[in-house]
Amino acid sequence: MCLSKWKTFFLFLSLFIVQGVMATDCACELTSGEKPFPKDKLLSMETSAVACNQKIQSAKVSEEASLRLGLHKRLLQLQDEVSVLEQEDDGGLYGAVSLRIIELELAEILQLINRLNTTHNMHLSLSTNVTATVQQLTEELKQLEEFDQMQIIQKLEENKGLQRSLAQCHEELQATPPPPTLPPGTCPRRRLAQVNGPSTYTITEYGTSYYYGSWGQDPQPGPGRENWYWLVALTSSDVFANYVLLYRSFSALVAGVDSMVISISNDNPTTNTIQGPNVVMYGDALYYGCYNTPSVCRFNVTSREITTAALPANTGINNKFPFCHLGACYVYTDLDLMTDDSGVWVAYASEESYGNVMLSQVESGDVPKLGRTLKTSLHKRTATNTFMACGVLYATRYVDKETEEVFYSFDTRTGVERYDLDISFKKMQTNIQSLNYNPSDHRLYAYANAYAISYDVIFE
Ligand SMILES: *[C@@H]1O[C@H](CO)[C@@H](O)[C@H](O)[C@H]1NC(C)=O
Ligand SMILES: *[C@@H]1O[C@H](CO)[C@@H](O)[C@H](O)[C@H]1NC(C)=O
Ligand SMILES: *[C@@H]1O[C@H](CO)[C@@H](O)[C@H](O)[C@H]1NC(C)=O
Q1: Does residue 403 have its Cβ closer than 6 Å to ligand 1?
Q2: Which of 41, 146, 346, 382 has the fewest Cβ atoms nearer than 10 Å?
Q3: Which of 155-164, 259-268, 425-434, 444-453 shows the lowest mean pLDDT across its residues?
Q4: Among 358, 350, 363, 248, CA closest to 298
Q5: Proximal ligand: closest to the CA of 364
Q6: Is the pTM for the entire model greater than 0.85?
Q7: Is 85 close to ligand 2, i.e. is its CB under 6 Å away?
Q8: Nearest bound ligand to the CA of residue 55
Q9: Domain 192-459, classified CATH 2.115.10, yes or no
């Protein structure tokens, strides 16, 4: 193997070793589905390479050289002696003696040749062994190279995937949105068929500070507030909030300007402050889970008055029956307040329902109270959220980072349950912390990892 090749080889080796060392020193935890770099293999390769080098540079090489040199000198000497013998050929005794000396000399030379032959054979086998080792090392190095290329190719594929999604997004942006199929405020009395969009997607004035929250439009707004939007971010521990923000327009919400801060309490958390993200506004009032109590709180935005409706005894709160997916649960999502054309609903679970979703209508009046209550067979922890549309309860589940799916429905008129809905929709963020249907514009409002997102809902 020529020197330049060896140089390249060791350059490769040292590069890999540097990578290996860095991987050992690095303290951060890397979660990766990819194969780890085979550092052990590299180290054993390094050992083989060093051993191989030592063998080649051993004294055995010089031994053969000195034998050759010795033999060469003896042969020259022999030549001299033979020519002297030729000159001194007198046919007598001296000639016979000289001949005997030459014979002895020849015998020694033959011994030398044998030793040289043995040494040479040994070197041949050594050289064969070294060739084999070098071949083996070369192959292993190739494998390592492929390993590295694999990762590069993988990243290239990922980039391609991202580019495809980007192109798809562009296409979807350019595609004309489907015409609104329903006049605002009407209830289609038909099944949910599609969730399209997102139709809006924005960060709020909080930036990415608060991962839990909720937003939307009041389906029964006070006069002059038809275009208003509301926003609640759980500003304490991703669990509690003590005020609601109101915006006069969607652009004000997007720009994060001119928000009206409507305070529920000076402290957070305390009695009657907001607990959990799934809150809604209806009829100029905010409905939410009361702090540390199994009750629905109603906060009148005009009078700032708080009234409550108690949920059945043993209703789970404080993370007893939250929404979940296989990876995690959404903290403090025990209660889910929802709106549809018939008003406000609340989904929850209790020990009596064995953690299955219970559904109650929240009747308004001077003091809110629970109306019709229905039991479902849907285990609350198997859903990521629920929403109501036209008297039908729908539940979603987490499919993957990009996709959420409406998989379940419960018709409050017939009591019929279905688990085979397959209405998936595209997420813009991995987790959806709150989801609610607005019957006046037939849109779903989602709050996902600090982003305010809305979707168009299409009925059959
Ligand atoms: C050298 O060694 C080989 C193998 O041992 C043998 O076959 C060959 O005859 C030897 N040659 C001489 C010149 O001794
Ligand atoms: C060459 O390798 C063989 C088998 O691995 C071994 O028996 C032999 O001793 C080796 N020869 C030398 C000179 O290292
Ligand atoms: C909120 O308070 C105002 C003013 O007191 C009142 O007119 C309105 O009916 C209240 N709304 C609810 C939902 O109680």
Answers
A1: no
A2: 146
A3: 155-164
A4: 363
A5: 3
A6: no
A7: no
A8: 2
A9: yes
